[in-house]
Structures are given as C-alpha cells and as structure tokens.
Amino acid sequence: MSYPQSIIDNHPNLHRIDNNLNNLVKRIEMLDYINPINIEQEKRNFFASKYNVNPKFRYRKIDFNAHKLQQALFSQDIYKIKDEDTRAFYEDVIYDYSGLIQCIESIGKGRKFYFNSLKSFGTPTERDVENARFILHFEDAEYDQELIPVFNATEAADFFIEFTRRYDFQFNLKFSTKISAAAMVQNNTQTLILKKNHLFSANQLKVLANHEIGVHMVTTYNGLHQPLTIFHNGFPNNTETQEGLAVFSEYMSGCLTMYRLKELAYRVIAADSLRKGSDFCDTFDILHNQYKLNREEAYTISLRTHRGGGFTKDHLYLTGLKKIYDAYQTGQGLENLLAGKVSLEYSSLVAKWLDMGLAKKNPFNNLAFESNENNNPKIEFILQNLK
Prior knowledge:
It is a single chain. The chain is mainly α. The protein has one domain. The chain contains 18 helices and 3 strands. Strands 1-3-2 form a 3-stranded mixed beta sheet, covered by helices on one side. A hairpin with a 4-residue loop joins strand 2 and strand 3. The longest helix is centred in the middle third of the chain and has 24 residues, at 202-225.
C-alpha cells in the first residue's frame, strides 16, 4: 500500500525508514525456522525409547546474514523522525527485531536459544502458573462427539475455504509434516499451512477457522492494506496480543471449550518447566504421568515447548486471552488491534496515526467479534476469575 503524496511530504523520513526496515525484515518469520524438519521421525524414536531418550531435532538453515542484518537495523537514522511517539516506537521496533534475529540465529543451540527466547517472549510468572492450575482443577467436560478427530487435512482445507467465503480475500494453502501445530498462518506469504497427517475434530475446525483465519489472516491482510509496512511485519511484542485476539475469537464464536482452555493451561505448565531446568523427557513426564495427558498431546506440547532449544512463546496464549477479555469487558474497542500485527500497548499510537493519516481503517473485521456466542457459564466464570 503506497502513501498518498501529502503523507510522504509531511513525513518523508518516516516513510523512508519504514521502507528500509521492511526491506530488511519482511522475509524473516520465526515460524519459518523454529519448527523441526524431522518431527515425525523423532516422535517415533521417542515413543520407541519408552519416553527415555530426548529427541534430536534438526532445523532449516537460516538464509540471511544475521550480523549484517543487525548492523543494518541499528544504522537507521530514526532520530530524524519528527513525531516523538513514533520515533520512540521505531526504537522499540529495532530492538525487538534485533532480539528476534538473535533468536532465529541460535535455533538448535540449546540454552543459547532459550535465553534469547526469554528476551523476546518472557517466561510464565507464578501468577500465570496459578491461572493454569486453576483451569486444570476443573473437571473435564462430558463426552462431546464434536471433539472426536475424524476429518483429514484435505477435508479440513475444504472447511477453511468455505469459511473464508465470508471474507473478501484469498490465501495460499499447503500441507506439511514439518509444523508442530495442526494449522498455522505464514504471514509473509499469506499461506495457511495444515499438518498433513493430522486428524481434526469438528470443534477443532471451528476453533482453527476463527483463530487462524478470523484473526491471523485478517490481521495479515489488514496489515498489507496499511501505509506503514510495520503493520504487516509486526509491532514489538505483538505475539501476546495477536494470540490473545485469536483465542478470544474462539470464545466469541462459541467454540472455546474446557478441552481447549486446558490445552492452553498445559502449555503454560510446559513453558514453566523450562524455567525449572526440565529437558524434553521431563516435560513429557510432567504432562503424561503427572497430569495424565495422553501421549500424543503430551508429545505435541513438549515439542512446541522444547523446539529450538526452549521456546517460551506458548505461555502467552493464556495471558493474551485474559488481557483481551478484560479490554473487551471494559468497553475497549478491538478494531485498532486488528489493523495488522499490532500490540495492545501501542493501541493508542494506532489511534494517533489514524488521526495523522498514517493509518487507515480496516478493510476486514473479525465477524465473531460482532456478538458473543459463548453459552458455557464455566468458561465465562474462568475468564472472569483469571488473575
């Protein structure tokens, strides 16, 4: 999306620096590198070892020069941006992307990656762990046929294509055995990737449609519409907000279940195990033997947590959900947070940019946010009482 000439004239340095940063980081996406390329083989080996031998994951090699990229980031003359709030924001952007590059560069290097992950994604606090345990103390829901996995990836793709008819955009679709999630959006190529050998339940199809398409794909296309490319590339610390919005979309569309909430709680427990020095086998043991999670799910959550050398991102789904839920309850609009890969802490800056002509209204909205379809009082009680 190009600037109107008047905006370029009023903010020439901002326009130039934003484009410079776009050229540097537009192809850098953590999810392109963090997922092991030998997930299925190592899963078979782990199960064959009776859960006693840590997987040895391999990763895609990075295809950029991290050192030169860091130099180029910090050489930007952001002091020439006139607006003080915008200048401070772009300082945060540079530090955030520098940390992300360090993360990607150290994938597969054990504790080095873990400590870089901490800088970018943090770690669960005691309050976060208490929230997870609070969720896990509730009894499982009664038998629900919608939770039985029966749909293959091709059938899932048909469902997502049909779901997207309510939005006026199209995306690429591909299948892969090299992702740890059942589905994920690749922002830089506008691609929905489905796990090729995964079986989906009816509920999971609804969850993923509202999560991946209703939020992640909507914010991808809204970000492409914005004059500033940082909306598409991502604000600093946007993961918590974006994942919070995505799970909140599940809640608003009426498909957030106790099963799903517990999955998010287990992720917090797994991320916290990293802080306590657990290896893959230890985390799997906590989930499978202590919490009685079946081995497939315990493996997947352990994989998500230990990929790269210790990836702490997963604790942000629950904290993000609580922050977005609270914002919604207080009447705060979510439109600015859907303008791209935006962070809650910069919502007021987006509003300022709208007034300045540096941002535009969203062409796409999350349709689930139009009315609250949740009819599960237990879910409501939990969200109200998370700390």
